[in-house]
Amino acid sequence: MGIKQWAAGAAVVAFAAVGAYVYLDTGRSAAPESTFVLLDGSRQSTADLRGKVTLVNFWATSCTTCVAEMPEIVATYRKYQPKGFDTLAVAMSYDPPSYVVNFAETRKLPFKVAIDNTGAVAQAWGDVRLTPSTFIVNKRGEIVKTYVGAPNFPELHQLIEKLLAET
Question: pLDDT at residue 63 above 90?
Answer without folding.
Answer: yes
